[in-house]
């Protein structure tokens, strides 16, 4: 029998990561447009949140693969079913790729890494420039994907009024 809601650990990870990703996007935008004395602090914060997100997404992927999760509604059209699965794969891929790109970018640029992490790639300024550009562009893709994900959740909760939004709701599940 399939569950009607995601496991509480999956829900906690989802909402914690959602908050951290939103914070990361705002910190990232502030960081590149702010050359004040707090610039260094923003970079450190960005690296710390990125590392936390990398660890959390690894745990989250393990949870997703090991715990049962609710199925999509039976009446969901095939194209929407495919879009839901593809968008989740994209989100998981971006949540994994973004911190790894940031880590590689910092390594290639010769910048210090948090917690004495080893360099992922050798010091190479051309590679740094490439990774920095990829990190920036994928941040836009991540932001757009988050907006689409939020829009789809709202459609399920407010228009379709099915159990999809309730299945990931934080805390106790609302009653029907």
Automatic annotation (TrEMBL):
Coiled coil: none annotated. Belongs to the cytochrome b561 family. Its cofactor is heme b. GO terms for molecular function: electron transfer activity; heme binding; metal ion binding. Keywords: Cell membrane, Electron transport, Heme, Iron, Membrane, Metal-binding, Transmembrane, Transmembrane helix, Transport. Residues 6-171 form the Cytochrome b561 bacterial/Ni-hydrogenase domain. This is Cytochrome b. The keyword Signal does not apply. One of its GO terms (biological process) is respiratory electron transport chain. It is found in: Cell membrane. It is a multi-pass membrane protein. Signal peptide: none annotated. Its main location: membrane. PANTHER family: BLL0291 PROTEIN (PTHR30529:SF6), CYTOCHROME B561 (PTHR30529). One of its GO terms (cellular component) is plasma membrane. The chain crosses the membrane at residues 12-33, 39-59, 89-108, 137-159.
């Amino acid at each position: 029998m399939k569950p009607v809601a995601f496991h509480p650990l999956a829900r906690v990870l989802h909402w914690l990561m959602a908050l951290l990703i939103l914070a990361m996007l705002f910190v990232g935008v502030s960081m590149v447009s702010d050359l004040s004395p707090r610039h260094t602090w923003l970079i450190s914060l960005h690296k710390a949140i990125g590392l936390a997100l990398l660890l959390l997404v690894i745990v989250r992927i393990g949870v997703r693969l090991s715990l049962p999760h609710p199925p999509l509604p039976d009446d969901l059209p095939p194209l929407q079913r495919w879009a839901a699965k593809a968008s989740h794969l994209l989100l998981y891929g971006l949540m994994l790729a973004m911190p790894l790109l940031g880590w590689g970018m910092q390594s290639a640029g010769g910048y210090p890494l948090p917690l004495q992490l080893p360099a992922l790639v050798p010091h190479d300024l051309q590679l740094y420039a490439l990774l920095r550009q990829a990190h920036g562009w994928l941040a836009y893709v991540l932001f757009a994907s988050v907006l689409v994900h939020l829009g789809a959740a709202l459609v399920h909760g407010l228009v379709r009024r099915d159990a999809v939004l309730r299945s990931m709701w934080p805390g106790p599940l609302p009653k029907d």
